[in-house]
Specification:
The structure holds two protein chains of two kinds.
Chain A lengths: L4 E3 L2 E5 L4 E6 L6 E7 L5 E8 L4 E4 L2 E6 L4 E6 L8 E10 L3 E5 L3 E6 L1
Parallel strand pairs in A: 2-11
Antiparallel strand pairs in A: 1-3, 3-8, 4-5, 4-9, 6-7, 7-8, 9-10, 9-11
Chain B lengths: L4 E3 L2 E4 L5 E6 L6 E8 L3 E9 L2 E4 L8 E7 L2 E6 L8 E8 L8 E2 L3 E5 L1
Parallel strand pairs in B: 2-11
Antiparallel strand pairs in B: 1-3, 3-8, 4-5, 4-9, 5-6, 7-8, 9-10, 9-11
The chains are: A mainly beta, B mainly beta.
Protein backbone atom coordinates (compact mmCIF):
# COMPACT_ATOMS: atom_id res chain seq x y z
CA UNK A 1 0.00 0.00 0.00
CA UNK A 2 1.15 3.53 -0.63
CA UNK A 3 2.71 5.42 2.22
CA UNK A 4 1.72 8.93 1.21
CA UNK A 5 -1.65 10.20 0.11
CA UNK A 6 -2.01 13.61 -1.52
CA UNK A 7 -4.96 15.91 -1.28
CA UNK A 8 -6.56 17.19 -3.42
CA UNK A 9 -6.30 14.73 -6.29
CA UNK A 10 -6.64 17.58 -8.76
CA UNK A 11 -6.40 21.35 -8.49
CA UNK A 12 -7.17 24.04 -11.05
CA UNK A 13 -6.17 27.65 -10.41
CA UNK A 14 -5.49 30.89 -12.24
CA UNK A 15 -1.99 32.07 -12.97
CA UNK A 16 -0.73 34.22 -10.11
CA UNK A 17 -2.71 32.38 -7.44
CA UNK A 18 -1.13 30.19 -4.79
CA UNK A 19 -1.47 26.41 -4.92
CA UNK A 20 -1.49 24.28 -1.80
CA UNK A 21 -1.18 20.51 -1.83
CA UNK A 22 -1.28 18.27 1.20
CA UNK A 23 0.22 14.89 1.93
CA UNK A 24 -0.49 12.43 4.72
CA UNK A 25 1.56 9.37 5.54
CA UNK A 26 1.28 6.40 7.84
CA UNK A 27 4.57 5.39 9.44
CA UNK A 28 7.64 7.03 10.94
CA UNK A 29 9.87 8.65 8.36
CA UNK A 30 13.42 9.91 8.00
CA UNK A 31 12.47 12.58 5.51
CA UNK A 32 9.74 13.68 3.17
CA UNK A 33 10.30 14.83 -0.38
CA UNK A 34 8.21 16.48 -3.04
CA UNK A 35 8.59 15.69 -6.71
CA UNK A 36 7.11 17.08 -9.87
CA UNK A 37 6.18 15.17 -13.01
CA UNK A 38 5.41 16.82 -16.31
CA UNK A 39 3.23 14.84 -18.67
CA UNK A 40 5.15 12.02 -20.29
CA UNK A 41 8.33 12.65 -18.32
CA UNK A 42 10.12 11.25 -15.31
CA UNK A 43 9.77 12.69 -11.84
CA UNK A 44 12.00 15.56 -10.80
CA UNK A 45 12.99 16.26 -7.23
CA UNK A 46 11.81 19.61 -5.86
CA UNK A 47 12.58 19.75 -2.16
CA UNK A 48 13.39 17.56 0.83
CA UNK A 49 12.46 18.18 4.45
CA UNK A 50 13.95 16.09 7.23
CA UNK A 51 11.89 14.67 10.06
CA UNK A 52 13.41 17.15 12.54
CA UNK A 53 12.52 20.16 10.38
CA UNK A 54 9.17 21.96 10.38
CA UNK A 55 9.42 24.28 7.39
CA UNK A 56 11.60 24.74 4.37
CA UNK A 57 11.69 27.20 1.48
CA UNK A 58 13.08 27.00 -2.03
CA UNK A 59 12.25 29.82 -4.38
CA UNK A 60 8.47 29.91 -4.78
CA UNK A 61 8.10 26.64 -2.88
CA UNK A 62 7.32 26.33 0.80
CA UNK A 63 7.06 22.96 2.49
CA UNK A 64 5.85 22.25 6.00
CA UNK A 65 6.04 19.04 7.97
CA UNK A 66 4.02 18.06 11.02
CA UNK A 67 5.28 14.71 12.26
CA UNK A 68 2.69 14.58 15.05
CA UNK A 69 -0.05 14.63 12.45
CA UNK A 70 1.98 12.72 9.88
CA UNK A 71 1.28 15.36 7.29
CA UNK A 72 3.05 17.78 4.99
CA UNK A 73 2.02 20.59 2.69
CA UNK A 74 3.54 22.06 -0.43
CA UNK A 75 2.74 25.67 -1.26
CA UNK A 76 3.57 27.12 -4.66
CA UNK A 77 3.27 30.89 -4.60
CA UNK A 78 2.47 33.10 -7.59
CA UNK A 79 1.80 30.11 -9.80
CA UNK A 80 2.63 30.11 -13.51
CA UNK A 81 1.22 28.14 -16.40
CA UNK A 82 4.55 26.28 -16.51
CA UNK A 83 3.80 24.90 -13.03
CA UNK A 84 1.12 22.70 -14.57
CA UNK A 85 2.18 19.17 -13.65
CA UNK A 86 1.57 16.38 -11.18
CA UNK A 87 3.12 16.73 -7.75
CA UNK A 88 4.01 13.78 -5.55
CA UNK A 89 5.09 13.49 -1.98
CA UNK A 90 7.51 10.72 -1.12
CA UNK A 91 8.52 9.40 2.26
CA UNK A 92 11.91 7.97 3.03
CA UNK A 93 11.93 5.06 5.45
CA UNK A 94 15.01 3.35 6.77
CA UNK A 95 14.38 -0.37 6.43
CA UNK A 96 17.96 -1.47 6.37
CA UNK A 97 18.30 0.43 3.15
CA UNK A 98 16.45 3.58 2.22
CA UNK A 99 13.05 2.82 0.79
CA UNK A 100 11.16 5.72 -0.79
CA UNK A 101 7.44 5.39 -1.29
CA UNK A 102 5.38 7.77 -3.40
CA UNK A 103 1.83 8.97 -2.94
CA UNK A 104 -0.84 9.09 -5.64
CA UNK A 105 -0.06 12.68 -6.61
CA UNK A 106 -1.96 15.91 -7.12
CA UNK A 107 -2.60 17.07 -10.67
CA UNK A 108 -2.19 20.84 -10.80
CA UNK A 109 -3.50 22.86 -13.73
CA UNK A 110 -2.61 26.54 -13.87
CA UNK A 111 -4.69 28.54 -16.31
CA UNK A 112 -3.00 31.41 -18.10
CA UNK B 1 25.95 14.48 -16.13
CA UNK B 2 23.88 12.28 -18.43
CA UNK B 3 21.30 11.38 -15.82
CA UNK B 4 19.58 8.02 -15.56
CA UNK B 5 19.31 6.42 -18.97
CA UNK B 6 16.60 3.94 -19.81
CA UNK B 7 15.94 1.89 -22.90
CA UNK B 8 13.81 1.31 -24.78
CA UNK B 9 11.70 4.44 -24.41
CA UNK B 10 8.72 2.78 -26.01
CA UNK B 11 7.93 -0.86 -26.60
CA UNK B 12 4.89 -2.60 -27.97
CA UNK B 13 4.90 -6.35 -27.66
CA UNK B 14 2.52 -9.25 -27.92
CA UNK B 15 1.23 -11.12 -24.93
CA UNK B 16 3.52 -13.99 -24.02
CA UNK B 17 6.67 -12.35 -25.29
CA UNK B 18 9.67 -11.60 -23.11
CA UNK B 19 10.35 -7.96 -22.36
CA UNK B 20 13.67 -6.62 -21.12
CA UNK B 21 14.00 -3.06 -19.87
CA UNK B 22 17.44 -1.59 -19.32
CA UNK B 23 18.82 1.08 -17.07
CA UNK B 24 22.10 2.91 -16.58
CA UNK B 25 22.12 4.79 -13.27
CA UNK B 26 23.99 7.98 -12.58
CA UNK B 27 27.66 7.24 -12.15
CA UNK B 28 28.61 6.92 -8.48
CA UNK B 29 25.10 6.36 -7.20
CA UNK B 30 24.77 3.36 -4.92
CA UNK B 31 20.99 2.91 -4.92
CA UNK B 32 18.93 1.84 -7.90
CA UNK B 33 15.14 1.64 -7.97
CA UNK B 34 12.59 0.22 -10.38
CA UNK B 35 9.13 1.79 -10.23
CA UNK B 36 6.00 1.10 -12.25
CA UNK B 37 3.40 3.79 -12.92
CA UNK B 38 -0.18 3.22 -14.00
CA UNK B 39 -3.31 5.33 -13.76
CA UNK B 40 -4.98 2.80 -11.50
CA UNK B 41 -2.15 2.05 -9.08
CA UNK B 42 0.01 5.14 -9.26
CA UNK B 43 3.75 4.84 -8.74
CA UNK B 44 4.72 1.50 -7.25
CA UNK B 45 8.17 0.53 -6.03
CA UNK B 46 8.98 -2.84 -7.54
CA UNK B 47 12.50 -3.47 -6.27
CA UNK B 48 15.57 -1.58 -5.17
CA UNK B 49 19.27 -2.37 -5.02
CA UNK B 50 22.05 -1.06 -2.82
CA UNK B 51 25.57 -1.55 -4.11
CA UNK B 52 24.21 -3.96 -6.74
CA UNK B 53 22.51 -6.16 -4.12
CA UNK B 54 18.70 -6.47 -4.12
CA UNK B 55 17.45 -5.16 -0.79
CA UNK B 56 13.68 -5.28 -1.13
CA UNK B 57 11.77 -6.98 -3.92
CA UNK B 58 8.45 -7.14 -2.10
CA UNK B 59 6.86 -4.95 -4.76
CA UNK B 60 7.60 -7.31 -7.62
CA UNK B 61 4.11 -8.43 -8.64
CA UNK B 62 4.82 -12.05 -9.43
CA UNK B 63 7.39 -14.54 -10.60
CA UNK B 64 7.07 -13.33 -14.17
CA UNK B 65 9.08 -10.28 -13.10
CA UNK B 66 12.79 -10.41 -12.38
CA UNK B 67 15.47 -7.76 -11.95
CA UNK B 68 19.23 -7.95 -11.98
CA UNK B 69 22.10 -5.58 -11.40
CA UNK B 70 25.27 -7.28 -12.59
CA UNK B 71 27.40 -4.19 -11.99
CA UNK B 72 27.16 -0.65 -10.70
CA UNK B 73 26.34 0.82 -14.10
CA UNK B 74 23.66 -1.49 -15.43
CA UNK B 75 20.37 -3.05 -14.40
CA UNK B 76 17.62 -4.94 -16.18
CA UNK B 77 13.98 -5.59 -15.45
CA UNK B 78 12.60 -8.58 -17.27
CA UNK B 79 9.02 -9.71 -17.73
CA UNK B 80 8.51 -13.24 -19.02
CA UNK B 81 5.90 -13.97 -20.21
CA UNK B 82 4.32 -10.53 -20.60
CA UNK B 83 0.59 -9.93 -20.16
CA UNK B 84 -1.64 -6.99 -21.14
CA UNK B 85 -1.96 -5.96 -17.48
CA UNK B 86 1.78 -5.32 -17.45
CA UNK B 87 1.23 -2.31 -19.70
CA UNK B 88 2.61 0.67 -17.80
CA UNK B 89 5.46 3.13 -17.63
CA UNK B 90 8.48 1.61 -15.94
CA UNK B 91 10.89 4.03 -14.31
CA UNK B 92 14.41 3.40 -13.25
CA UNK B 93 15.89 5.78 -10.69
CA UNK B 94 19.07 6.11 -8.71
CA UNK B 95 20.30 7.90 -5.63
CA UNK B 96 23.35 8.35 -3.46
CA UNK B 97 23.31 7.53 0.22
CA UNK B 98 24.05 10.49 2.45
CA UNK B 99 22.26 12.99 0.23
CA UNK B 100 18.91 12.47 1.90
CA UNK B 101 18.22 9.88 -0.76
CA UNK B 102 17.09 12.36 -3.37
CA UNK B 103 16.02 10.14 -6.22
CA UNK B 104 16.87 10.89 -9.84
CA UNK B 105 14.51 9.37 -12.37
CA UNK B 106 14.99 8.30 -15.94
CA UNK B 107 12.45 9.27 -18.55
CA UNK B 108 10.73 5.90 -18.34
CA UNK B 109 10.06 2.95 -20.60
CA UNK B 110 6.51 2.97 -21.96
CA UNK B 111 5.40 -0.64 -22.30
CA UNK B 112 2.28 -1.75 -24.12
CA UNK B 113 1.42 -5.45 -24.19
CA UNK B 114 -1.27 -6.33 -26.71
Amino acid sequence: SQQGEEDPQALSIQEGENATMNCSYKTSINNLQWYRQNSGRGLVHLILIRSNEREKHSGRLRVTLDTSKKSSSLLITASRAADTASYFCATGVNTGGFKTIFGAGTRLFVKA
Amino acid sequence: DAGVIQSPRHEVTEMGQEVTLRCKPISGHDYLFWYRQTMMRGLELLIYFNNNVPIDDSGMPEDRFSAKMPNASFSTLKIQPSEPRDSAVYFCASSLAGTGNTIYFGEGSWLTVV
